[in-house]
Prior knowledge:
The protein is built from 14 helices and 16 strands. The protein has helices at residues 3-17, 40-44, 79-86, 108-113, 130-140, 145-158, 164-167, 176-188, 206-220, 239-245, 263-274, 292-299, 321-330, 347-377, and strands spanning 26-36, 48-49, 52-59, 62-63, 68-72, 94-99, 102-103, 115-118, 194-198, 231-236, 248-253, 256-261, 279-286, 302-305, 310-315, 336-342. The strands form three sheets. Strands 1, 2, 3, 4, 6 and 7 form a six-stranded antiparallel β-sheet that branches. A six-stranded mixed β-sheet has the order 8-9-10-5-11-12, sandwiched between helices. The protein has a four-stranded antiparallel β-sheet with strand order 14-15-13-16, covered by helices on one side. A hairpin with a 4-residue loop joins strand 14 (302-305) and strand 15 (310-315). The two termini are 39 Å apart.
Amino acid sequence: MNTSTIASNSSINREIEGYSSSASIIRTLSLTKVFPSGSLSSLLRFSHNGGGRAVVDNLNLTVPRGAIYGYLGPNGAGKTTTIKMLVGLLRPTRGTASLRGYTIHDHLREAQRLTGYMPDTIHRFPAMKAIALLETLGQYSGLDRSVARSRALDMLSWACLDGQNVLDTKVNRWSAGMQRKLLFIQAMLHKPDILILDEPTANLDPVARREFIELLNKATNGGFAKDWRATVLISSHDLPEVEEISTKIGFLNHGKLIAEGTKEILRWTIKQATHEGTTIFVVSGTNLIKIVKEIRDRLDATVSTTPRDKLIVSTKHANDFFNTVAGIVANHPDVTITDIAQEEENLESIFLKLEKLTRVRDECGERGLEKKSKVKGE
């Protein structure tokens, strides 16, 4: 690393250390990882950056204390690279991060002690029984052997992995779902302030995935220990899964954080950027086909019908919707409405819109640069 990069990181470290740890327990500042051209990673993705490719590009994210932060993005977005930098498995090209006030450049050991990490994959589990393995891992995390054993027994019981046939079987022969639970347990064993979970349900069948999510919900709601509740960063490309458990969400795409906030804030961001302001209503009842045209005309709406006599109405006049529909129905005695529900936009829809906005913005930027270069050339 050159001297200018070292100087830059030093100033960033001072800035991030000055940030109140009570406001955010995880924070990144201009965090960047560039792989040299010609490496395997550089063949896969992203913009050119100093002769290489930026897998994570000037990342600035904040995870509040006590939050469950859903770190979302498609495969190859840079999520695992981010996490490996946070836990010390990869060194950033520039920028830095802090975990409860400890920067990963100057205080990595302290940051690691208060972090529990669940990797996305383990290529080969050791031929050991669960209790012996957790005892060893607990000691690596700073626990006494007796404490590690006691907690291992408690956690295995809590996760329903305490059957004698399970405990007598070496973990390399366990099912994938059981092994994922074991990785989760080892991350929690020393009751860390921070849990970092990288694709924890990857390659699990639906039943095992559901069991893991329920386990995570229990853990983050004090279900394992009343005196311990960690801040959680969980990466995934499974949007419904993260939508269920997250209190804050960050969307990563092509190494850049394209949006961050609660689902409500992200929805508002899209409406502000697109001037969309469209609300979707689902109307249930009988003979609704008779009022479709009037709803379209009076609410300037898009209306589609379903086989079960429901109307899907998309309109920018949400405030007038109920009164207008009531007035229309009053003139049609044979039309009955049994329910009107406002459809909530899910994370998948939000992500797709954000990704489209980012792509359009980038394309416009590239066209602008091309125009400038042509003018200079002329």
